[in-house]
Amino acid sequence: MKQRTLGKSGLQVSLVGLGCNNFGGRTDLEASRKVVHKALDLGITLFDTADTYGERGGSGTDLGQVLGNRCKDIVLATKFGMPMDEAGILKGASRRYILSAVEASLRRLKTDWIDLYQLHVPDPLTLIEETLRALEDLIRQGKVRYIGCSNLPAWQVVEALWTARPGTSVSTPLCRVRMSTACSCVIRNASSCQPWKRMGSGYCRNFLWRPVCYPASTSGISRCRKVRA
Fold first, then answer.
1. 3-228 falls under which CATH superfamily?
2. Angle, helix 154-163 to helix 128-141, in steps of 10 degrees
3. Does 220 have pLDDT greater than 90?
4. How far is CA 120 from the centre of its chain?
5. pTM (two decimals)
6. Which residues are known catalytic residues?
């Protein structure tokens, strides 16, 4: 399996990542175990989950149980921000919620750190600076190594990047986008872009999208290449 550097972060990931959204839900523990072991055998090192995957926590719980000590051999990415309860209280991107959400994810995943921690959806009630500074604190504490965002509109991605511009004390977020909705503004400004759901949750047909990440600059932008599967 070929490796790619994720944008300007220096983080090495496999050319293809494994989405774990079905674990703990449509895929039971034993089936998930087979998928994870096969992915590891193929050289896949990027595993992407979220706290809400698997009926609010099931994916992370199963992934933590299956990986065990192999967790240190992969790049583990998870997300926060979507509702984790029926009342819609446990959600968002405030400092208070982030600090509690990361502890819950660490327990489920049975790990001491998360390689890539991403805001899953926008939070209209919280300033992006508060979110980024809380995430920066997690990096300083060693609980998170890189930060990112997912499903944010282009203007919010640019706002986050501007808040984390050089000269500030905030880390630059990586960007996870659905390529059908990504615009040139995101691709040109983000430090990296990760396309998602290019295989239709398992229903791959004639083509497979593989992330090919380049540093964002005037000579090279984050982009994706379409290749035959």
1. NADP-dependent oxidoreductase domain (3.20.20.100)
2. 60
3. no
4. 8
5. 0.81
6. 53
